[in-house]
Design goal:
CATH class of the largest domain: Alpha Beta
Bound molecules: uridine-diphosphate-N-acetylglucosamine, calcium ion
CATH architecture of the largest domain: Alpha-Beta Complex
Number of strands: 37
Low-confidence stretches: none
Number of helices: 8
Shape: elongated
CATH superfamily of the largest domain: Spore Coat Polysaccharide Biosynthesis Protein SpsA, Chain A
Mean pLDDT: 97
Largest sheet: 23 strands, parallel
Radius of gyration: 30 Å
Length: about 450
C-alpha cells in the first residue's frame, strides 16, 4: 500500500549527455517501455503521490507520458539534482506530505522493496535516509564518506573526490535514493551552494549539511546492488535492459511458459503470457500483449499490444500490432497485422498478407500476397492470392464487405466502397467496382483475344 504521507519526486530534467542522443534520457526504452515508466510505476507503489521534475526535452516527455501529467514540475535550467528538488519543493510543501522520497529518473531497475526500506527507516524518525551500495569500481558515482565510528559524514561526487582529503575510496557509493523529512531538511535544501567542480547544486550535499546541522542521517547499505544505480551510457542501458529481460523470461519459465532459445526472447513488463504458451526466440512481445495457453509464437516475430488467444498459432517472421488472433487461427509466416486486424477462429492469414482494420471470419482464408484494409470478410470465405482492397481514394478510406463463403479469385482488385455477397464468386483478375449479389459470379476483366500470325512461318 502506498504511504499517503509520502510524496515521491523523480528527478528527470537532465539531458543524459553520456547517452549521445538528442532524446531526453528518460525516454530511452528498455523492453519497449520508456525508462521513466519503470521509475514512476515503482514510485507509485510506495508513495501516495508522485512528482516528476522535467526540463530538457520537457515537451517530448509530457507527450510520451500523459498519465503523469498532473505531477510534472519544470526545472527551467538544469543546475543540478539539488536544484531540481528545489524546483519541486513548493509542490512538495503543498501536498502536506511529511516525507519526500527522491528517485533518479534514470534508475529503472529500482524495486518497491528498496523504497519501502528507505521510507520505513524515515518514518522511524530519521531526517535523511539514503541507500548506498558497494562496487568493485566506484567509477563516476558519488562516494559515501564515513567517520571512524562508521557514521556517515557526507557524499562527495566523483569529480570532487580526492583520497588525500576524503580518505581511501571504499567503493561505497550513493544510489541517489533518498527519503527526507520535509520539515527537517528544508533549511539545508535552500542553503546548497554550487561550490564544486561541476558548478551544480548537488542533492548529495544535503547529507554533509544535515550532519553538521545535527539532523538524524542514516545510510542503508546494500552489498553489490548495481540495479539501484542510474543508467548513464548506452552500455549501462544495454546491461540494464538485459537484466530486466533475463528476469522476465526466468519468471515466465518458472510459471510454466515454454521458451525455446529463451536468451533471445524479449517480453515487455506489461505483457501477460499464460502457462502452456510456447515461444521460440528470437522474438519480441511488447506492450500490453496477452498470449493464451497453448498458443505458439514462432521465431523472428514482433508482437505489440495484441491479443493472441489460447490455441492460436503465429508462425515465423510476423509483425503484429494492436491485432487479435483467435483460437485455432494461424498467422504467417510473414504476415503483417496492423491495428484493428482480427483473425477469427480457425481462420488463416498467410505469407505476405497485410491486414489493417480488417477481420477474417471463422475459418476464412487469405493465404498469400494480399492487402485487406477496412474490410470485413465473412466466415469460410477464401481470398485468392494477390487480392487487394483498394480502400483509399487519395482523400478518404472506404469499406469493403465480403460475405460468408465468398470466393475471391486471384489478383482481384476490390475498389471500395464495395460489397461482395455471400457465396459469390469473383473471377480471377477482376476489378470489382459494383456490388456482387449473393451467389453471383462476377467477371470484370477484358476477354482474352487470340490473334493468329505472330509465330514464325514453318
Ligand atoms: C547522481 C548522484 C550520485 C549517484 C548517482 C547514482 C548527484 C549530484 N549525484 O549522479 O551521487 O552516485 O546519481 O546513480 O545527485 N537531474 C535533474 N536536473 C538537473 C540534473 C540532473 O533533474 O539539473 C536528474 C537527471 O535527469 C537524472 C538524475 O537527476 O535522472 C541524476 O542526474 P545525473 O546527472 O544522472 O547524476 P549522476 O552523475 O548519475
Ligand atoms: Ca545518473
Amino acid at each position: 500500500m502506498p504511504h499517503d504521507n509520502t510524496i515521491a519526486v523523480i528527478l528527470a530534467a537532465g539531458k543524459g549527455t553520456r547517452m549521445h542522443s538528442s532524446k531526453p534520457k528518460v525516454l530511452q526504452t528498455l523492453l519497449g517501455e520508456g525508462m521513466l515508466q519503470y521509475v514512476a510505476a515503482t514510485a507509485g507503489t510506495v508513495a501516495g503521490s508522485v512528482l516528476t521534475v522535467i526540463g530538457y526535452g520537457a515537451e517530448q516527455v509530457r507527450a510520451a507520458y500523459p498519465e503523469l501529467a498532473e505531477g510534472f514540475v519544470e526545472q527551467l535550467a538544469q543546475k543540478g539534482t539539488g536544484h531540481a528538488l528545489q524546483a519541486a519543493w513548493d509542490r512538495v510543501r503543498q501536498s502536506g506530505a511529511t516525507h519526500c522520497l527522491v528517485l533518479n529518473g534514470d534508475a529503472p531497475l529500482v524495486q518497491p522493496e528498496d523504497l519501502e526500506e528507505l521510507v520505513g527507516t524515515a518514518h522511524e524518525g530519521a531526517d535523511i535516509v539514503f541507500l548506498t551500495t558497494t562496487l568493485p569500481d566506484a567509477g563516476a558515482f558519488g562516494r559515501v564518506l564515513r567517520g571512524s565510528a562508521g557514521n556517515v559524514t557526507g557524499i562527495v561526487e566523483a569529480k570532487d573526490f580526492n583520497p588525500a582529503i576524503h580518505g581511501a575510496d571504499t567503493g561505497e557509493v550513493n544510489t541517489g535514493l533518498f527519503c527526507l523529512s520535509v520539515g527537517a531538511v528544508e533549511a539545508a535544501l535552500f542553503s546548497l551552494t554550487s561550490a564544486n567542480r561541476a558548478g551544480e547544486y548537488y542533492i548529495t550535499d544535503l547529507v554533509g549539511l544535515g550532519v553538521q546541522a545535527g539532523l538524524k542521517v542514516h545510510a542503508l547499505k546494500r552489498e553489490d546492488a548495481p540495479d539501484l544505480l542510474g543508467v548513464n551510457s548506452p552500455l549501462e542501458l544495454a546491461r540494464a535492459e538485459e537484466r530486466l529481460r533475463a528476469g522476465q523470461t526466468e519468471r515466465l519459465l518458472a510459471s510454466g511458459v515454454l521458451l525455446h532459445q529463451h536468451e533471445q526472447i524479449v517480453v515487455g513488463p506489461r505483457a501477460a503470457i499464460d502457462p502452456g504458451a510456447e515461444l521460440t526466440g528470437p522474438c519480441r512481445i511488447l506492450g500490453a500483449t496477452t498470449i493464451g495457453q497453448g498458443a505458439t509464437i514462432g521465431a523472428f516475430c514482433q508482437i505489440t499490444n495484441c491479443v493472441i488467444d489460447a490455441g492460436a498459432t503465429v508462425r515465423e517472421f510476423c509483425h503484429l500490432e494492436d491485432a487479435h488472433v483467435c483460437a485455432g487461427a494461424v498467422a504467417g509466416p510473414y504476415s503483417r497485422l496492423r491495428p484493428g486486424a482480427d483473425v477469427g477462429e480457425n481462420a488463416r492469414v498467410g505469407n505476405f498478407v497485410e491486414m489493417k482494420k480488417a477481420s477474417l471470419g471463422k475459418g476464412a482464408k487469405a493465404s498469400h500476397l494480399t492487402y485487406l484494409g477496412d474490410t470485413a470478410v465473412g466466415a469460410g470465405a477464401n481470398i485468392g492470392a494477390g487480392t487487394i482492397t483498394c480502400n483509399y481514394d487519395g482523400v478518404h478510406k472506404h469499406q469493403t464487405n465480403i460475405g460468408a463463403g465468398a470466393f475471391i479469385g486471384s489478383n482481384t482488385a476490390l475498389v471500395a466502397p464495395v460489397q461482395v455477397g455471400e457465396n459469390a464468386l469473383v473471377a480471377a483478375g477482376s476489378v470489382i467496382t459494383k456490388t456482387v449479389p449473393d451467389g453471383a459470379l462476377a467477371v470484370a476483366r477484358a476477354r482474352q483475344t487470340n490473334l493468329e500470325g505472330r509465330g514464325k512461318k514453318s
